[in-house]
Amino acid sequence: MMKWKEYFPNKELVQPPQFEAEVLCYPKPEIVCDYLSWRQAECHNRNQYNTCFWILVKSGKGEGEGEAHGY
């Protein structure tokens, strides 16, 4: 995070990013940056999925109905 502005010059760091990730020895820092960006996007997508799914379940829809709607 010390070099946040170097790798993300147009994006302000509002709070430290937190997500599960595994970083291996990649040949270039840019590849690590791309990997972490992808993991953050994946985390966001899963969060949206789970939020919608559990709203349906808590509103009385069965788990199968949530899955049938693509949630």
Describe the protein in words.
- The protein has helices at residues 4-7, 29-58, 63-68.
- The mean pLDDT is 83.
- The chain has a domain at 28-71.
- With 71 residues, it is an all-alpha fold.
- The chain contains three helices and no strands.
- Helices cover 56% and strands 0% of the residues.
- The chain is elongated.
pLDDT averaged residue by residue: 83
State the secondary-structure class.
mainly alpha
Low-confidence spans: pLDDT under 50, at least 5 residues?
none
Strand fraction:
under 5%
Individual helix count: 3
Tally of strands: 0
Order of helices and strands: HHH
Question: Would you spell out the secondary-structure blueprint of this structure?
Answer:
Blueprint: H1 4-7, H2 29-58, H3 63-68
Short key terms for the protein model shown above:
single chain, about 70 residues, mainly alpha, 3 helices, about 55% helix, tRNAHis_GuaTrfase_Thg1_sf, magnesium ion binding, Thg1 C-terminal domain-containing protein
Describe what is shown at a glance.
The chain has a domain at 28-71.
